[in-house]
Write a structure and sequence with these properties.
about 140 residues, elongated
C-alpha cells in the first residue's frame, strides 16, 4: 500500500542539509545507504583534491585577464561547482587550505577531484529534492 510521505522535511531544511553535509538530504529522508555513500564519496574526493593541491578559490580578475568571455564563465562555474561540495569544502577552507585559480590549473587532478566532489553533492541534493516529492511505499 502506497501512501504520501507525511514526515517529509521542509524544503529549506532539506536543501541546507543536503548542501552542508554531503548526502544530508538523504539522511533527512531516512535513506541511510545513499547518505553514507554520498558522504563517503564526496568527502574522499574533496580530501584527495586538497592533497593534490587543487585550486579552490574564486578566480581573481587578474587571473582571468586576457581570456575570452566563455573561458571566464567556465572558470567561475568551476569555482562554484567546487563550493557545492558543502561541508568538506568549508572545512578545508576554514582549516587554511587555499589555492588560487592559477595554482589549481597547474594541479589539474586535484582541481578535477574538487569539482567532481561538488557536482556529486549537487547530484545528491537534486535527487533528495526529487525524492521528497514522490510517494514512498
Amino acid at each position: 500500500m502506497k501512501r504520501p510521505w507525511k514526515d517529509a522535511p521542509r524544503p529549506a531544511a532539506l536543501l541546507l542539509a543536503a548542501w552542508l553535509v554531503p548526502g544530508g538530504g538523504y539522511l533527512l529522508l531516512r535513506r541511510y545507504r545513499q547518505f553514507a555513500l554520498f558522504l563517503l564519496v564526496v568527502s574522499i574526493a574533496t580530501l584527495a583534491g586538497v592533497l593534490l593541491h587543487g585550486g579552490n578559490l574564486w578566480p581573481a580578475t587578474g587571473e582571468l585577464q586576457g581570456l575570452d568571455g566563455l573561458a571566464k564563465l567556465t572558470a567561475r562555474a568551476g569555482a562554484l561547482a567546487k563550493a557545492m561540495a558543502g561541508g568538506p569544502y568549508l572545512l578545508a577552507y576554514l582549516a587554511g587550505y587555499s589555492q588560487t585559480y592559477l595554482a589549481g590549473c597547474l594541479h589539474e587532478c586535484g582541481t578535477a577531484l574538487l569539482t567532481a566532489a561538488g557536482l556529486l553533492n549537487l547530484l545528491a541534493l537534486a535527487d533528495a529534492w526529487d525524492t521528497r516529492g514522490r510517494v514512498r511505499a
